[in-house]
C-alpha cells in the first residue's frame, strides 16, 4: 500500500474527528481531484452556510503564517483577509452546489471596492511578495467571480517569472496557487492558454525547492507535486519528496512535518498537508 493511501484511509476513518472546515476541505479536494464518491453523502448533507456578513466581520489574521512579516500589509489592506474567506465561500457554493450568491456578496462588499483593492494590490510588489497566497487567492477569485477585461493569471505569472516574487517557500506557494486558482481549485482543467507559462514557472519552482529542500515545508513540496500532475509535467524531485514523506509518517498513519508548529502536527492541523499528500499519489 502506498503511504499516501494509508493517510487517505486514516482521514476517512477519523473523518468525524475533524472540524467542519477541515472535513469540507478534505472532502472537496479529493472529490474534485480524484473523482471519488466517498464523500457524496457528507457533501449533500453539509452545504456551507450563506453567512457572508458574518464571514466579512471576521478579520482576525493574527494566526496566519509569517504573521510578523505580513502584519503591515494586512493592516494596509484591512479587509483583504475577510474578503478572501468570503470569496472562497461564494466560489465553493457556486462550484460545488450550483448556488450563486455573487450578487449577495457585492451588496456587502461593492464590486467597485473589490476592483479597487485588486488594482491597488497588483501595483504593490512588496505586498504581493509578503501576502503571497492571500493576494493570489483574492486577485484570482475576484477575476473568476467578477470578470473584467484583464488577465490576472498572466500578470501574476509574469511577476514570478520576472523574479519579482520572494525567494524559497513563499515564491513556490505564490506560483502553485496561481495554478490552483486557474482551475478554480480543481473544479476544471488548467486552461490551455496558460500551460506553457505554467511549465516554465514550475521549472523555476523546482529550482527553489531543490535549493531550499531541507527547510521547505512538506505542504509546499506536495502542492508543487500536485501542480506537476495538473499540467502533466515531469519533475526530478518526486523520489526525494517520497523519501522524506516515508521519514515523516506518524504511527497514527498521517504525515507530520517537524518544521511546522505543534498545532499543525495533529490530525486536525495536518489535514491540509495530508490532503495534498493523498492527491500527490506518492
How does this model look, in words?
The protein is mainly alpha-helical. It has a domain at 47-150. Helices cover 64% and strands 0% of the residues. The protein has helices at 3-13, 20-34, 40-45, 52-57, 67-76, 80-97, 102-108, 111-122, 125-131, 133-145, 152-161, 168-182, 195-211, 218-230, 238-248, 271-280. Helix 1 (3-13) packs across helix 16. The longest helix is centred in the N-terminal third of the chain and has 18 residues, at 80-97. The termini are close together. The model has no long low-confidence stretch (mean pLDDT 94).
Helix-strand layout with pairing:
Elements: H1 3-13, H2 20-34, H3 40-45, H4 52-57, H5 67-76, H6 80-97, H7 102-108, H8 111-122, H9 125-131, H10 133-145, H11 152-161, H12 168-182, H13 195-211, H14 218-230, H15 238-248, H16 271-280
